[in-house]
Specification:
Distance between the termini: 54 Å
Strand content: 25-35%
Strand order of the largest sheet: 3-1-12-6-9
Oligomer: single chain
């Protein structure tokens, strides 16, 4: 066996042609394969041809298999959407409400620029399943409840409420997952009887992020 390998190496070293990997079956010693089927070097070259064919087929299959998840990952990375905002008020605790839209001014994150600080509205950049969360907080400064509504296109999809109790502070949080369409508008409002209180600590927050795009959602 060692002698055969040595012969093959010598043949490769002194031959004017080189074996290409992978190639297109352009073998200079093809005559050897036909005329000398018992040659050990030729038998090894036959095996190399079979290995090359198997390698190419496997490579093509793996490339096709990995193409779809790669496209989905690239799409997700280039179309990410997430935001998290707080009220960002002064050092002194102040209370507000009721009013139709809470305009959160302190932007922790606005990936994809979907949230607008001027309007307090998150405009959905692409359809899919989103996670949305709001937290409301109030103190003894106001006699109103800590409550609010999460709205999509002016329709209430979730409400959060903490009725006034014996303690000096009230807070509540709601988290929902909803399927949204491109262009949908998401916001938080304070209905009658509701108020929120805050200072620079941002006790009141509004957060959302894309879980799955519509294409990814249909595949699940």
């Amino acid at each position: 066996m060692r002698a055969i390998v040595l012969l093959c190496l010598l043949h490769a070293a002194f031959s004017k042609h080189t074996f290409t990997w992978p190639g297109k079956h352009d073998y200079p010693d093809y005559a050897c394969l036909k005329d000398q089927p018992s040659c050990g070097c030729c038998l090894m070259q036959k095996k190399m041809m079979r290995m090359e064919s198997f390698f190419n087929q496997t490579y093509e299959a793996m490339t096709k298999y990995l193409a779809k998840p790669k496209m989905a990952l690239d799409d997700m990375m280039t179309n990410r959407s997430a935001f998290s905002v707080g009220l960002n008020h002064t050092e002194i605790m102040s209370c507000f409400g009721p009013f139709p839209v809470i305009k959160y001014n302190n932007v922790f994150l606005n990936l994809g620029d979907g949230y607008n600080t001027d309007t307090g509205i998150f405009t959905v950049p692409r359809c899919g399943v989103y996670s949305l969360a709001i937290t409301v907080y109030s103190s003894s400064i106001t006699s109103l409840m800590a409550c609010g509504n999460l709205l999509v296109n002016d329709q209430v999809v979730a409400s959060v409420i903490e009725r006034k109790g014996q303690d000096d502070e009230d807070s509540a949080t709601v988290v929902v997952s909803v399927k949204l369409k491109t262009g949908d508008e998401v916001k938080v409002n304070l209905p009658e009887g509701c108020a929120i209180c805050d200072d620079h600590n941002n006790f009141n927050t509004f957060t959302g992020f894309l879980l799955y795009s519509d294409v990814e959602y249909r595949k699940m």
